[in-house]
Amino acid sequence: MAAYRLNVRVFWPLATCGCMALLGLWTRAGPAWEAALLLALLLAGLALRPRRLAPGTPAAPKFDPRRRRAALEDFYARQLRLSPHVLGHSRAHVGLVLGELLRAGRAAGRLGLRGAWVPVGSAFEQHQVRSPDAFDVLVPLRLPPAASLRVERSPGGGGGAWLCALRVAASGGLSGALCAEEAGGAGRLLSAALVLRWFQGHVQRCLGAVRSRLQDRAHVTLAAGPGRPLALRVVPRSDYVCCHLSLAVRLIPAVPVGQALYLTPWPAAQPGALWTLDVSKPEQRLLSWLREHGPADACHLKCLQILKGLRDLGGRSLEQPLASQWGQVLSSYLLKTALLALLLRGPMRAWADQLLVERLEDLVAFLADSLQRRVLLHAFLGNSALPEAIGVPKLLKEASPVNLLADFEGPTLDKVAAHLLNTWRQAPHIIRMYSGHRYQKTHTV
């Protein structure tokens, strides 16, 4: 197939002869302008001659690989990569505040705690982006007396989540105060909504008891509201300028169900009794296993950070409602799930840092294909491809696979997939366009 392209080497002579021919036409200069016109036509034929490409040769890319690599590396270094120093100080402040808070809860008997707080999320998995100012922690609660787990898949609108209910066989004490009647009067269930309300009240009282002890180290307040997660706002009082960050620590009440699995309140269940399964600890074990079996300079977490950054930039050019749908579909958890699925295909040696662009391209292509097929399965639920070395809990092995894209409409997924591919193709241009300071504040982790 012939491709017509302008030959730059003859462009300026062509333009000169064309101007001479036009001047001759205007002045009627005789044979001279006719010769100039013939020369201009000859050069035009040379400039627009067909250039045949070998069969199977792709069209030239918009950006060559070296330029793409340079743009991505600069984007990562300037806007996405966290400072280990600042991250370390932020974690220390979070640990200090949580330690005092939970110690007060145990002493007063206000919180029915079971063990220490559990760090989860991107800040503790080495793939948070831009600033270490957001942390998620699970606060394990003691299971109410005589409570039993009953699996109950959501009838719809669960966003692909694994949902269940906690049936309470005996009332009284904590369980009686936080139970709701099951539909049809079949029994009593531990209410996620009532547990959240109870938990918020006790955290508020515990914070009041320790605020004076913390005032020299940090200013701590509690942020909560309808539809918002319970979070501590921590502003460290430090002499280090780099540590003057306002930290948000999201506190998530969790019921342990064994083998490092937890049940957490399902946000969409208000005021219902549904809980969702949290598999953060098995995910952390898998990431550790992958790191041990990969090259020393493995780039898989760096790929995830860059993809998050491109996701954030790619959404800036969209109008509603696609702008909101873009962020909902391409959640950080969905991006991590796509990465884990690709990593489990192996081999890990292919994730060396020198292959960053190739692996990112594979990740974007895999994600776009999943969106177009409307299927991206949960990384742990019913997945037989997980390595036995990480100790997959029996509950996860026996669970039915869950499609994280189940509740999104097909046309929406098609639009998101198309825009994702375009964002990747135009990545250097988009990074340059949105690299100004005013675009660097809004981000997701």
What sort of overall outline do the alpha carbons produce when their principal axes are compared?
A: globular
CA-atom Rg in angstroms: 29 Å
Runs in which pLDDT lies below 50 for 5 or more consecutive residues are 1-10, 47-61
Order of helices and strands: EHHEHHEEEEHEEHEEEEEHHHHHHHH
Number of strands: 13
Strand content: 15-25%
Largest sheet: 11 strands, mixed
Helix content: 40-55%
Cα end-to-end separation: 46 Å
The count of helical stretches stands at: 14
Can you characterise this structure?
The chain has 14 helices and 13 strands. Strands 3, 4, 5, 6, 7, 8, 9, 10, 11, 12 and 13 form an 11-stranded mixed beta sheet that branches. A two-stranded antiparallel sheet has the order 1-2. The chain is α+β, with helices and mostly antiparallel strands and 445 residues long. A hairpin with a 2-residue loop joins β9 and β10 (228-236). Mean pLDDT is 80; it is low at 1-10 and 47-61. It has helices at 11-27, 31-47, 65-80, 84-108, 173-177, 192-214, 280-293, 300-314, 322-329, 332-343, 356-373, 394-397, 410-425, 427-433; strands at 2-4, 50-52, 118-120, 134-140, 147-151, 163-168, 179-181, 188-190, 218-225, 228-236, 247-258, 261-265, 275-278.
